[in-house]
Amino acid sequence: MALEALIFDVDGTLADNERDGHRVAFNQAFAEAGLDWEWDVPTYDRLLEVFGGKERLRFYIERDHPDFDPPGGLDTFVRDLHREKTRCYTELLKSGALPLRCGVERLLRYARAEGLRLAVASTTTPENVTVLLEQTVGPGAVAWFDVIAAGDMVERKKPAPDVYLLALDRLGLDPANCLALEDTEAGLASARAAGLRTVITVNGATRHQDFTGALLVVDQLGDPGKPMEVLAGDAGGARLVDMALLRRLHREAQGG
Ligand code: XBP
Hints:
Blueprint: E1 5-8, H1 18-32, H2 41-47, H3 53-64, H4 74-94, H5 104-113, E2 117-122, H6 126-136, E3 145-150, H7 162-171, E4 178-182, H8 185-193, E5 197-201, E6 216-218, E7 230-232, H9 243-253
Parallel strand pairs: 1-2, 1-4, 2-3, 4-5, 5-6
Antiparallel strand pairs: 6-7
Helix pairs in contact: 1-4, 3-4, 4-6
């Protein structure tokens, strides 16, 4: 089976945007709504165990503010506050505050040059993905991706496999023709449950997680002059994740 597509997670994988992006946007939305809630970094890192912004918000309210009883009901409150959070987050992206991670743009460009197809499988709101790509790579970058599977397009968020299964379905490809790129244990579980081999780039919030079953675990994709650190797996001495390494890992995973 040839390698035909790469499927990327977004938050934490394309950009390190949880602590300095989503967290900041949640806090801005809380302040604008007149709430005295504030998520510091340790609090937010723990809340990241709940995937999906609306789900995270609801979990926090039910756990830390069990008597909170907004007039229109909790569902409406969460939906409206999250919409405001998305506005704050996309404004933050448009300010240029959140770059892509090291090596991401390089890998996207080389994958395209070699004729691979690109897709996204993310828990985040679709608008967040398109604004991130346009703001970092440029206005045409969304068209580089054949499929953007994200947010509420699926019922069950990661670690369920649904968003990867949707991406595969829309690509029209077998999982054996693809590789997934992730940054979390739950993301790895989601991709593996969809039958995908996965490369992990950890970040500060996920470095301690269990990535058993990943093809390779590195601290970043790396760039010339900015070598990656290999945390698990065999990179064969490579100093960055490039198409040659991904093709070798894919081939070996197929047993050939
Ligand atoms: C990570 C998430 C997302 C974001 C918040 O998604 O859990 O929920 O933290 O985004 P992934 P929203 O790693 O799959 O990209 O507030 O838009 O849900």
